[in-house]
């Protein structure tokens, strides 16, 4: 039976046909009685299918160990402002060095970023909390104790240098540019919608503006929405829309909207060409298709696990939304996906890095779709490294599944790995 496609029992059926398949530990006996039938061991079942995925997900005793490409990153960063870019044949990494109070950046032809360190030019920035790319220029915002904004030519890997137009003592908390890279903006830590805003057309020279219009309040998150062709300023009780980066109009927000100041440090939004999705504080999602009207979507309503208030990052990979979420303090990340532009959601199987110790857990720092790859940046607690990058391409989603399957981890058994074994019902 190995590799053969068979019918699987539905979760809702009370009886099963002879010939149904289930998956158990290979240490189970050759034949046993269970669930009103007799089951016979048939061998390791390794062919991937959506039914196989669903069965594994619903079997609480096992979880799939997909095997993403893991690269040990040479930096010690574990800031939630981390981000990954790609330009001119190189990947770029920018983040805050939480362990020693500095900022780090580097470039390389692969995800190890081992080509050139760009950290030296960021020494004036106390902590890199946000960044953006405009053309070939990466701009980095610093906080929380003063510092300057740095800028580098990503094409040449030049050292970061101070920009013009922003006072050197300004702490930057939010930074974003439009899709075309023709307009970007940054907002100081604790900035308000009718306060100081700095705009740029090239990422290195900024113009001081004063926000006007819309609802006045502290800006907790700033995002570019292609469907609205505008920037969105998100506060605890408002959303403002602006096309020039500072002249704003108020948007209609639904009851139950929550977005606290702590969310400004998290890359919690993503956009397709026709919608924008923002992860709210309580783990529900805010969705818009025009940047004017917003609806709240709860993934739990579609059978997905709740995001909760843990670390979560979002991205759009060209065909689906992916949310990379660590739901518990000591758990491995899992994925929440939408294949219909953010309307309905489902869980995709989690991965676990088998090279880490059983005590290690992964904290989500960033999720970026660049150069056709779904790339996650993570810090490892309890493991042998501080930061790793993972190429998750082909692992996340309902229809696109990993090629390396068949390994499982037995819950409560010290992380022992083994191939699942197929059992076929031979009598009812």
What does the model show?
The structure is a single chain. By secondary structure, this protein is mostly beta strands. It has a domain at 21-66 and 408-427. The protein is built from 1 helix and 36 strands. It has one helix at 50-58, and strands at residues 21-24, 31-34, 37-44, 62-64, 69-72, 83-87, 90-97, 102-108, 116-117, 128-134, 137-142, 150-153, 161-162, 172-177, 184-188, 196-200, 206-210, 212-213, 221-225, 230-234, 239-242, 247-250, 269-271, 276-279, 285-288, 294-297, 312-316, 321-325, 334-338, 346-348, 361-370, 373-381, 387-391, 407-410, 417-419, 421-427. The strands form 9 sheets. The protein has a 5-stranded mixed sheet, with no helix packed on it. A 4-stranded antiparallel sheet has the order 1-36-3-2, with no helix packed on it. Strands 5-33-32-31 form a 4-stranded antiparallel sheet, with no helix packed on it. The longest helix has 9 residues, at 50-58.
Assembly state here? single chain
Strand content: 35-45%
Structural class: mainly beta
Overall pLDDT, averaged?
A: 74
How are the strands of the biggest sheet laid out side by side? Answer: 18-22-21-20-19
How many separate helices?
A: 1
- Apparent shape: globular
Q: Termini, distance in Å?
A: 19 Å
The radius of gyration computed from the alpha-carbon positions, rounded to a whole number of angstroms, is 24 Å
Helical proportion? under 10%
Low-confidence stretches: 1-19, 44-53, 59-67, 400-419
**Sheet having the most strands:** 5 strands, mixed
- Number of distinct beta strands: 36
